[in-house]
Write a structure and sequence with these properties.
Helices cover 43% and strands 24% of the residues. By secondary structure, it is of the alpha+beta class.
Length: 875
Amino acid sequence: MDLPDLDKHARDEDRRLEALADLAVLDTPVEAEFDDLTALAASTFGVESAAISLVDHDRQWFKSRVNLSFAETPRDIAFCHYTVEQRDLLVVNDAAQDPRFRDNPLVTAKGGIRFYAGAPLILDDGSCIGSLCVIDPAPRPDFDEKGAGLLKGLASLASSLLIARRERLTGEIAAKVINATTDAIVAADREGKIVLMNGGAEDMFGHPAADVLGKSIEILMPERYRHGHKERLDRASASSQMGKLRTFGELPVQTADGEELLTDMSLARWGGDDCAGGFAAIFRDIRERKALETDRNHTRNLLDAIVANLPSLLFVKDLSTKKYVLVNDKACEIIGLPESEVIGRSDRELFGAIGEEFERRDLKAAQTKRPFRYESTFVSKNGQSFDIRTSRIVMDGPDRPGQYVLGVGEDMTDFRRTEAEKKWLARYDELTGLLNRTSLSELLADCVGEGTPFAMLCVNLDRFRAVNEQFGQAAGDAVLQEIGTRLQILCGAQATIARVGGDEFIILLKGDRLESRTIQLAQKIVSTAAAPIVANGTFCHIGASVGVAFFPEDASFPQALRDRVELALDRAKKQGGGRICLFDATLDAQVRDRRMLESDLRIAIDRDDIVLHYQPVMSVRTGMVSSVEALARWEHETRGPISPEIFIALAEDCGLIDKLGCKLLNRACEDMLALPDTVRVAVNLSPQQFKSGDLVPTVRAALKRTGADPRRLQLEVTERLVIENAQQTFAQLEALRSLGIQILMDDFGVGHSSLSYFQMFPFDKVKIDKSFIADIETSKTARAIVEAVIGLAHQLSMGIVAEGVECEEQRSLLTELGCTHLQGYFFGKPAPLQKVAQLVARKGAPAVAGALRRNPPHGGHAFTSGMRSAGSTTG
C-alpha cells in the first residue's frame, strides 16, 4: 500500500495559506460585489443560505454569507475543508445520513445543515483557498450535473473577483508607493515612449508628467549616452532574468534645464514575460551618496595620513597571535625597520628577550581592561636609544571582543634630554659650564654649616664692558669662556668656582695655610686675567679685580660673607682695577655711612632740600651774560655742604637720578621765567637718565607745565654718556633738539674723545674742560689742544665755551684764540637765582660778573656739578 507524501502535503498547504494571505482579504468588511454573488447563488439554487468560505490555518471565515448567523467556524467542522482538500466539487445531499458529517455540530444543531454543495475557489497560481457553497436545512437528493456546472461557474466568478480585488489592491499600493517614493520611477512601452512618471521623477528631471507622456525616454538622457542606453534596453529585452528588477549601475541623466545628474538605474519588464508592456526604470539620485563616499574616502585618507604622520608612534597587535597588524611611520622609525618587516611578526620574533616583556605588557592591558601606561628605554635595530612612554588599550575586533591591543607611544627622548638639561642649567652656568649662583648658595650654606674655615674670592673683570660694546656680545662671551677655563686651570681640585653674574666669579677655597694660599691664588688670577685673550680673531686686553673675605673671621653667615667680599671687591675696583683687596672693618663702616647718606638723600629729594645755583656764561662778542648753568647744591642738616660729586654719584648708584633730575629740570624751567628773555639756562644730564627711555617725555612735560621757551633751554651731556651707548643717546638727543633745545658737549677732552661724535650729531656748542684751560699759559700741549678744538668747532659752526677761566690772562688769550663764550670764577661763582636775577635786573648783564666775583656764596667755596658725577670748579 502506498503511503501519502506528508511532506509534499505540508508544502502544498504552506503555499495555499501564503496565497490566501497575499489576497489580504481575511477579516475585511463586506463588499457588495461578493454579497451580490452569494445572493445570486442562493436564489439560483433555491436554498436558504449561501457563502463564500475562505479556509485559513485553523478556521473558515466567510467573506460573504446569506442567512448565516456566524461569520466563521473552526476548520475541523467546516464542510469547505473537504472541498479544499479534494480541490473539487463537494455535494452532500443529506448530511444527517453522511458518516462524515452526521455528528457535526453544524448538522446536529436545531435547523442544522442537511444539504451542502461547495465548488472550490481556485486562484491563478492553482491554489485552492476555499469554496462558494450553497446550504439548506432540508435534504436535496435531486442535485444534478446541471446544478453542479452552474455552481462551478459561480465559484470561478468568485475566484476572479478575489483575483481582481488583489490586483486592484496591489495596484493601489503600487500607486501609493510610486507616488510616495523620492526615487524617480519612469515606465516606457516597447517603443521607449513614456507611459508613467511619478512625482519623484518630476522633481528629479524637472519635467511635469503631462508634458513627457508619449515622448521618448531618451529626452531624459544626455545626448552622448542615448545610443548606449538603447543598446542596454535591447540587451535587457533579450535577458531571461528581466522578470525581476535588476540594477544596471550608475547612469547620468539630464534634467529639463540641461543639468546632468548621476543616478543608479534599475530596470524590470512590465506586462508579462514577453515584455508585451515595456520597461519600468527606477532612477535614484546618488549625488549625496557620492558626496558622502567622497567625504568618507577623504576622511579615510585623512585618517591614514594622520596615523602615518602622527608624531607619536602607533601600533595595533592581534592579542591571540601576538603579531603586528598596523604600525605607523613613527613606530617604524623607532623600531628601525620598514613596515613590511614588522607587520605579521610578533615582538618575540622582532626583539627577542625584550619582546617577551612587551607581550607581558599587552597581557597586562588585557587583564586590567583600562589604559595601561609604561615608560622605558628602547634600543632600535640601528642602535639608537629612545625613551618611550606607551599607553596600551584593548579593543574589540570584527571576530571577537578584545581582539586587538592598540598602543600609542610618545617619544620622550627629547623631553628627557631637555629635562636633564634643565636640571643641569639649574645648577650650572650655560656659557662657562661652571656652577651658577643657585649652586653656590647651596654650597656656601653647606660650608658654613660644616664650620670649617674657608676663603671666598670674588673676581670681577676690568674693562669687560668696553670689550662687549666694542667687539660685540659674541666676543664678550668668548672672553668669559676663556676666563672660566683659566680659573679652572688655576684652581684645579683645590677650590670650587661659580659664575654668579655677568663678569663676576666666586671661588671657595679650603685647607691649610688658608690666608697665604688665598693671596697666592688671587695674585695668579690677576696675572692670568691680564694676559691677552683672542676672541673672534681679535686680541682683547682686560684684567681682573679680586675681593677676599674669610669664614668665620669676617662673617659667620652666608649672606654676610657675600656682602663682605663684595665690599672688598668694590674697594679693589675703586683703586683702579687689577688689584686685590682683603675685607677689613673700615670697609663695613664706609658702607654703613653710605647707606645712611642714601637714606638722607631720599628724604632730601622728597623735601626739595637740593636746590639750584647758577653760574654765568659770558658772550665774548657782547661782553654780557648769555646763559647761566644750573648746578645742584645740598646743604645737609648735620654734615653741612655735600659735594655734588658725592650725592650725584650716589643718586646714580641707588636709582634716584631720574627722580632728582626731573625735579631739578622742572625747577630750572621755572627759574628761567625769572631771568631776562636773552638769558638761556643750561641743565646737566646724567648718563643714567638716558637709559630709562623717559627723558624726552620728561623734558617735554616740564616745558609744557612751566610754559618755558624750549629755545632758551640748553642740555649738557658728557663724553662718558656718548661712549656708553652712542646710538641710543643720539636718537634721544635728536628728539630733544627737534623741540628747539640746544645740545652742548660738556667736559670735552677728558674722556675717550672721538671726532666721530661730531659727525654723528651736530652739537650746538662744545665746552673745553677746565684742565686744559688751567695749563694753557704754561703748556704748549694744552694750548695746542685748545687751539685745535676751537678751530674744529669753528669749521663745524659750533660755539665754544671755555670752562675754568680764573684770571684776566686766560680770558685775554682765550678771546684771542677765538672762544665764543667764557665761564669761570673770573666772571662769577655759582649763586642762588634771586641774587643772579637781582644783579642782572639792577646793573645789567655786563656788571653781573664783577658783582658775583666780589660776593661768592658759601664763604668762597664753590661745589660745581649739575647732573655730573665728576664735578669741576666751574660746573
